[in-house]
Specification:
Blueprint: H1 2-10, H2 23-44, H3 55-59, H4 66-94, H5 103-112, E1 119-123, H6 125-135, E2 142-146, H7 153-162, H8 168-177, H9 181-189, H10 203-215, H11 218-228, E3 234-237, E4 244-250, E5 257-261, H12 263-270, E6 274-281, H13 289-297, E7 300-303, H14 308-316, H15 319-327, E8 332-335, H16 350-361, E9 368-372, E10 400-403, H17 416-433
Parallel strand pairs: 1-2, 1-7, 2-3, 7-8, 8-9, 9-10
Antiparallel strand pairs: 4-5, 4-6
Helix pairs in contact: 2-4, 6-8, 6-17, 8-9, 10-11, 13-15
Amino acid sequence: MNRLNRLTRQLSWKWLYVGLGVKRWVVLLGVGTLALALGLAHCLVDVAGATPPTFADYITLRVLDRPTRVGVFGVVGIVLIAIALAKLTGALVFTFTSEDTNLAEALYRKRARPRGLKIVAMGGGTGLSTLLRGLKEHTDRLTAIVTVADDGGSSGRLRRELGVLPPGDLRQCIAALARAEPLMTALFEYRFGEGTGLQGHAFGNLFIAAMAHVTGNFERGLQESSRVLAVRGRILPATLANVTLCAETRGTDPPMLERVAGESAVTQRGQRARIVRAYLEPEDAPAYPGVVRALLDADLIIAGPGSLYTSVIPNLLIAEVRRALEVARAPKVYVCNIATQPGETDDFSVEDHLAAIEQHIGAGIFTRVIANDNYAFALPPSARSQLVRARGDDASRAWITFADVVDVQRPWRHDPAKLARVILDWFNAQRNSA
């Protein structure tokens, strides 16, 4: 009975709906099959009679000799079947692809990408979403580990008023990995410009917060948001704990250490003093369980690009994440920013970026750095940034892979396709040489 019920559900009446673009090609397939069958029948039996030809004789080509009838019906049948199969396949494939995607691309997405590398990308903000946009074209086995220390803007308001984890960085990752990315990006990034209580909020932040309340908890809400938007890969918060990013800074006048609490306060204070150390409160915040499993099972682990002290390092400050990175066998790559960030990395070189990471988690974990080498452009004066360069000689920079990864439209940011290609080329070269 259960098998009969399943068969009944599969034979859905929805196939008879008008406008699906399927029934016409099924009918043509039937006509082609009939024509081919007639040709084979004429080949086996001589149906020509001695009586004068009738209308039916003309329809079945009985007025022609047998070899001609066989050839005509055979050719017509094969042509009709080929056309019907091609159109029917196209109609079905269109359901699962965009209008500008051909069958080969659809097969690649369904067959090749799900068997791609298991890549874990760590960070937050625009940098992580940029990386994900490039990597998703090569594999669907992506895991994004996202910082949850944001306390400013729309995310900070929702965190304080609703008690949810800050959704901003998670929102950007969902938009980057959604199948209908251009539309989803525009929708999720839309900010209300007016309205009491709505002004300044991003729609995506409200969506995730609402989903968390509908499903009962933030973790389930994030999962359901990803499912509804057909996200390629997984998006995981680094921790479910309510953590606060803190930092020690050292000013020049007076030259003394000062403690700062809150991500936005860290960046603001850094504009007047240098960040010496970052840490989380509470310091014993547990990692989200899926994060540790993803790191231990990964083929490749990537940190950055993104704000060094407020997007990349906060993930690494979680003790369980740090231990998982130490024992994980996957190669670990750090993607250095193209430009310095005011308040965090003023005047930093490539070496300074890696040194800051090693100060917090120890040396030798990230053994490869991807850095930009295209300096043929100028940053806008309003950016208050400089291009990040390496300061050592060639011998001391063997652990750096230099490449042009600049987005020509926004040269202070990475180009998703360029960055993904450089990372994967390096990984494949390492694997082939092993």
